[in-house]
Amino acid sequence: MARAKFVQEEIREKDRLFLSTYLEMENASLTLLSEGEDRLGTLAVGIPQRGELLGPPLSSILLGDRNIMIARILAERLAKKMTKIALVSVFIKTVAEKEAGPILLKLVEKTVGKKRRVRSEFARVRSGHGSEGGSYSYKGSGLATL
Question: pTM of the prediction?
Fold first, then answer.
């Protein structure tokens, strides 16, 4: 049984700090996106289409009423990209949704990309091509096995 993967990332755009917390399990992922500080915001779920069905992933809002469009769009994109259920929370307090969309998309791509880089390092170490002794600890990588 695989353990959950955890990544935290941040970017600064237009003198504002945007944060992401990403938790990935075998069958689903949870992404929390916020401005300034970690907070739960509008929560959307995206469900990928199965192989024989055509069309975009399905999505719905589970909680909240602000930033509905960007939460659904990001949930759908992650569900399609990761081919698993994606829960996405968006909390934006001072930036308009239209302005926040590209920033949050960039942050999600940075976060998921970091997770994939660290995962490939784990695979390299496990195969014996990394450090001696088969250590799986990457301090400061932003990824922790829970």
Answer: 0.75
